[in-house]
Amino acid sequence: MTRSTKTDKARQLNAAFAMLRRSMPLSEAMQRLAGEFDLSERQAYRYLEEAAHLELPVEVTEATVPITLKVPAATARLLRAYARSSGLTIGAIVTRALAAFLSAQRRHG
């Protein structure tokens, strides 16, 4: 059995959340979740427990791949400082910045 990705986990948690929102009996929700995502009933129950504490579905993010970037030391210091103060990860900051840059490039080129 392969490990679930963060995307898989978010989808499973959101499915559990939707079942609870529809007031599906817990035993039925557990069986459906286990069957739909090929989970053990124990794991399905854990997703249902976690989903019970959510107010909204969780964001399903795109799978990520690691890359290596070389930036000037001063830029790295600023990036780390911003990450600490904002509570975001360096990966999230770089992803947002690159998405904004590439979006602007498409509009102008």
In short:
Helices cover 66% and strands 0% of the residues. The chain has five helices and no strands. The chain has helices at residues 6-21, 26-37, 41-51, 73-86, 90-108.
Which term fits the overall shape? elongated
- Strand portion, in percent? under 5%
Number of helices: 5
Subunit organisation of the chains: single chain
Residue runs with pLDDT of under 50 for 5 or more positions? none
| Number of domain units | 2
Describe what you observe in this structure.
The chain is mainly alpha-helical. Helix content is 66%, strand content 0%. It contains five helices and no strands. The N and C termini lie far apart (46 Å).
Which key terms come to mind for this protein?
109 residues; mainly alpha; 2 domains; 66% helix
Note the topology.
Elements: H1 6-21, H2 26-37, H3 41-51, H4 73-86, H5 90-108
Helix pairs in contact: 1-2, 1-3, 2-3
